[in-house]
Amino acid sequence: MAQVEIKGDDILLRALQTAANMKAHKAAVQKHGADLQKKAQSNAVFTRGYATGATKRSIKLEITDGGFAAKVTAGTDYSGYLEKGTRFMDAQPFMKPAFDVVQPKFINDLRRAGIAK
């Protein structure tokens, strides 16, 4: 009777697992990046001062690092002043509260996919 022995199968399995993890990681980044953008836009409703909606319209999502990172930015020059406030103006945060909601869900998805511990 013939006997077949396969060497290197553990390397192949690790490579396949890594490829699956990479796909899951990219999907989680895309999903939660878009969610962060939507939540930040929904939070960017300002009632004090001159509310024009420019900050809300300027919030953009950029996927970088080959799909492994998402960057959500507000493009107006004064968005930092809205987020943090000044000595004459109270803060009206819109980005940090959105991040605080999305971050645990993102980490949960990474854990479920076996990427984060």
UniProtKB/TrEMBL annotation:
Pfam family, one: HK97-gp10_like
InterPro entries documented for this protein: HK97-gp10_tail
UniProt name for this protein: Phage protein
